[in-house]
Amino acid sequence: MQRVRITERARWRARAEEAGFRFHTIDGQPYWDETAYYAFTLRQIEQDIEDPSAELHQMALALMDEVVDSEALMQRLAIPSHYRDWIAESWRQRQPHLYGRLDLAYDGSGPAKLYELNYDTPTSLFEASFFQWQWLEEQRNAGRLPAHADQFNAIHEALVDRFGELASRLPPPLYFSAVGSSQEDVGTVEYLRDCAAQANLHGQGIAIEDIGLSEDGRFTALDDTVIGTLFKLYPLEDLMAEEFGRALPASGVQLLEPAWKAVLSNKGILPLLWERHRGHPNLLESHFDEGGALGAGWVRKPLFSREGANIEMHLADGSTQRSEGPYDGPSIIQQAHPLTRFEGGYPLIGSWVVGDHACGIGIREDDSAITRDSARFVPHAIIDEAPTQIYV
């Protein structure tokens, strides 16, 4: 794995706008960064990322029966009692899921280590799927990448295929929602709507704040249509904390991602995985936080936190780092395994699982060892032999 400088495409911003990728620059700062790319060998992708991602996904799913049948484990995950039976029933019915992202620390040496599962509202999807592949094709055509350069990226095809599989399993009508003021979330949702349409599964878009509640407790669109299936790019734990969300269990609406993803998106899944697979090469030692510490350095993470917020890192050399944010409540502690610094920063690999198949990666690079919402997206390529020169 190497970080390789490369010349940007002359019209990439225009290409992004044409594709609907309007959040390529956020608050005047680059989000999409194609001044470099990360080069992998095929062996690294297949053996160190793809295969472990598929295994970790199955390990997480294997916990579900145990968790939903245990009030003690639901309590340990701080899942509100009002929602536990609803979540458990969604799993027992095997309500279908669409996608998830595993965040991995990997630098080309040693096994990839699982930081966390983003299994409820994973973002950075469009850029990992469509726009990253467009970059690869155009840089190959321009001769800046070798003709044999490839990419671990079958995300788009997997999404279309998955929506085709879901078409008969989702109660109509289908709505796609996000916070209306979030350009990134709306862009992600519109991309997913398009993927569904390519599978002949058509849904309407709606801002989540425009969803109503009928007198009999059904979720409705602006024209009072009762929503059958709701794809919501909005954290389920936040929805459950709102008065509006208390109607969910009796509403009859099917969520995508389904309610049972509240278990796997909870960082408490990490100590549960460690307890059952102690010493697994892709896991970091993790425990529910009871005020202790891990001797060789550790990281504290709230059970419910996103985008690198409220992380507290204590490294073996005595250095510390903290990130601010709105999250509090119960936490886990995880063995510290800091990201490796490359020339442009600290890369974190997001490994995408669609349905139950690992199908691609995206890389976010931060100036800090904590990957925050300001991290940049940097593309990648598979070069069978590590590059011996910088392509310009």
Automatic annotation (TrEMBL):
InterPro entries: GSPS_pre-ATP-grasp-like_dom, PreATP-grasp_dom_sf. The lineage of its organism: Bacteria, Pseudomonadati, Pseudomonadota, Gammaproteobacteria, Lysobacterales. One of its GO terms (molecular function) is ATP binding. Residues 12-382 form the Glutathionylspermidine synthase pre-ATP-grasp-like domain. This is Glutathionylspermidine synthase family protein. It comes from Stenotrophomonas tumulicola. Signal peptide: none annotated. Keywords: ATP-binding, Ligase, Magnesium, Metal-binding, Nucleotide-binding.
